[in-house]
Specification:
The structure is a single chain. The chain has 306 residues and is of the alpha/beta class. It is built from 14 helices and 8 strands. The chain has an 8-stranded parallel sheet with strand order 7-6-5-4-3-2-1-8, with helices on both faces. Helix 6 links the parallel strand 5 and strand 6. Helix 2 crosses helix 3 and helix 5 runs parallel beside helix 6. The longest helix is centred in the last third of the chain and has 20 residues. The chain is globular and about 45 Å long.
């Protein structure tokens, strides 16, 4: 195993934080605020930063904006956190983004799930395989579907340049089946559904988790990760309970509020990173904001008291 692949797989067993993309008043990316956010996350020892992931609003960014987010994240992380550059849309665009991100110094490439409404599941798996063949750094496959067959998942897990699979389906029976079927594969199975689902994923044999909460409370994400690594599920549940409402708010409007909740929580802590771009939920309503503020105030007090 190459040193690069080993480093990426080790990072995937930790927290894969997905930074938000801050915007200025005119809607352009606020690179100064993005740099500050990345430095905070890197200093907080977040293991893996997924630049331009879904919490970074990948699908609302232009290709040039994605490149800008990649470059700023790589520069600001300054080697203090592994950076996985998220790519996607057409395979041609994904390869072009990957090539530029690698030239900019990305440690890994994360392929977004190909969202073509007429895609065949095995051919979506083929998308990841071709991206992994093309890339000169390790690839992470972000699978947001339970329509892949076990054979498809096995092909991904056995590919020599796929470091891990970010499994973002709540179909835990399928997860357990594919983990059993790939026991001979070195790829890491990662919880792609954030902290709330991480205990169940760990119990099935996955390691690590992705996080949007880490933008707001990296200390809480670290505490949950440490509890799970220690096999202390009771402690993990106790740490997750106060943020359960946070994650529930993110699932509203068919997950349309996913980024909105994170951005508004940051604003409540004095870090205004701008609104969410359409077609995401631009802003929470007053009732939702009141609920979120209570969660933020509680977790902030718990973090300060720890």
């Amino acid at each position: 195993m190459s040193d690069k692949l080993q480093a990426v797989r080790k990072a995937l067993t930790g927290i894969s934080g997905v930074p938000v993309t801050p915007y200025k008043g005119d809607g352009a990316i606020d690179t100064a605020k993005l740099k500050t956010l990345i430095k905070v996350l890197a200093d907080a020892q977040v293991h893996n930063l997924m630049a331009a992931g879904n919490t970074g609003e990948f699908f609302t960014l232009t290709m040039d904006e994605v490149r800008e987010v990649h470059a700023v994240t790589i520069e600001a992380a300054a080697g203090n956190a592994l950076v996985s550059a998220a790519v996607g849309r057409s395979l041609t665009e994904a390869k072009a983004l990957a090539k530029d991100a690698i030239a900019a110094g990305a440690d890994a490439i994360m392929g977004h799930h190909p969202m073509d409404p007429f895609a065949g599941p095995s051919y979506q798996a083929g998308y990841f395989l071709e991206l992994a063949d093309f890339s000169t750094v390790p690839v992470i496959a972000y699978v947001r579907s339970d329509s892949f067959s076990v054979a498809d998942f096995r092909k991904l897990a056995l590919h020599p340049n796929i470091a891990g699979i970010k499994f973002a389906s709540s179909n835990l029976m399928l997860l357990s089946e594919v983990i059993r079927a790939t026991a001979d594969a070195p790829a890491i199975w990662v919880c792609g559904l954030a902290e709330g689902w991480a205990p169940a994923f760990y119990a099935m044999g996955a390691k690590g988790f992705t996080s949007g909460l880490v933008n707001v409370f990296p200390e809480r994400s670290h505490a949950i990760h440490q509890a799970l690594e220690n096999g202390n599920y009771a402690s993990a549940r106790a740490l997750i309970d106060p943020i359960a409402g946070f994650e529930a708010l993110r699932t509203k409007y068919n997950n349309g509020a996913n980024v909105t909740v994170v951005k508004e929580a940051l604003g409540m802590l004095g870090n205004d990173v701008g609104p969410v771009r359409l077609p995401g939920v631009v802003a929470l309503n007053e009732e939702e904001r009141t609920t979120l503020r209570a969660i933020v105030d509680r977790v902030k007090a718990e973090v300060l008291a720890a």
